[in-house]
Amino acid sequence: MSGMGVSPNGRDISLLRNEDVGCCYRAIASSGLRVVWEITSSCNLACRHCFRTAPEGHDLDTARALSLVDEMIAAGVRKIAITGGEPLLRPDLTEITARLRSAGLLVKLASNLTMIDPDTARGLSEAGYLEVGFSLDGPEATTHDYIRGHGAYARLVAAVAMLSSLQTVQLNPVCVLGKFNFARLDEIVEKALTWGAASVTFSDLFLIDSPRVLAPREFVMAERLDTHAREAALTRIAELRRLYPEIAIRTVALSDESVACSAGTSVVHVDPTGRVNPCTLYHLDPPISVHELTFSEALTELAGRVFCEGTSLCRYLDQTW
């Protein structure tokens, strides 16, 4: 069933649809070459479940970031997701997004929205149409702040109030499901609707077993949903899709879908230091860096590497269905 129609703020969401995918590198809603650009390793929060890795090296400076944008445009990139860390920590973010949008690229910003002020909101709006994916861990402060720290929810609500009235911004909350918020599915969807969101995404709590991942393994293991709870969540989400056709409801890593991974082919990852990898989790050795190659040359080099099997299995995620 597709999320069809018009969102509460009057935006056409007919191009959005409900999806159940294994990870963001298996999403199939958009066509063409896509890039997940981790634009900074810095973050102003220390979320309990974050699988952000410890920084290695320095973020790209503004000059190289802007020239990389031009190279991505020349290489035929269709959509780019700007992530972090927290992208709003970069003072040149609006300049980068404006350059991307002026070339007609679809741009999604992934943020915790705790650093939005009126000037930043205005700058993002003036950059052109922008999809803003933001973290929402619960329908009120107690649950959300349990994950992200005291005051995070209040700052999020203030940011949403600033962004929701902008016709060039599309809001898309993302909720990581765990035992701490599993019972709040209905309320989270209803909250997204009151904010005029075009979609809401529910993601499983990933266990990524790497010494560089900052989130404590103990927290993830204690809070992660078991198979029965994931199945119950999917059942309720199916019901919510029928109840609320005006919003697209998506899931990531909750189902046992078997779509082949597109990492390194139609989707690539660029880390804060400029290394090009198939995905967020697979770090090539030796690395491919835009300090040494243009983006097109990096894609050619990437195409010559053998990394994943291109199947529905992923050895980098501990997924048990």
Order of strands across the biggest sheet?
A: 1-8-7-6-5-4-3-2-9-10
| SSE topology string | EEHEHEHEHHEHEHHEEEH
Q: In what range is the share of β-strand residues? A: 15-25%
CATH-assigned homologous superfamily: Aldolase class I
**Unreliable stretches, pLDDT < 50, 5 or more residues?**
1-15
Number of domains: 1
CATH fold-type name:
TIM Barrel
* Terminal-residue CA separation: 23 Å
- Which structural class fits the helix and strand makeup? alpha/beta
Counted by DSSP, the helix tally is 9
Mean pLDDT: 85
Sheet having the most strands: 10 strands, mixed
Count of DSSP strands: 10
If classified by CATH, what would the architecture be? Alpha-Beta Barrel
What would you report as the Rg, rounded to the nearest angstrom?
Answer: 19 Å
Describe the structure.
There is one protein chain. Helix 1 links the parallel strand 2 (33-38) and strand 3. The longest helix has 17 residues, at 227-243. The chain is built from 9 helices and 10 strands. It has a single domain (20-303), classed as Aldolase class I (TIM Barrel). Helices cover 30% and strands 17% of the residues. It is globular. Helix 1 packs parallel to helix 2 and helix 2 (93-102) packs parallel to helix 3 (118-126). Strands 1-8-7-6-5-4-3-2-9-10 form a 10-stranded mixed β-sheet, with helices on one face. It starts with 19 loop residues before the first strand and ends in an 18-residue tail after the last helix. With 321 residues, it is α/β, with parallel strands linked by helices. Mean pLDDT is 85; it is low at 1-15.
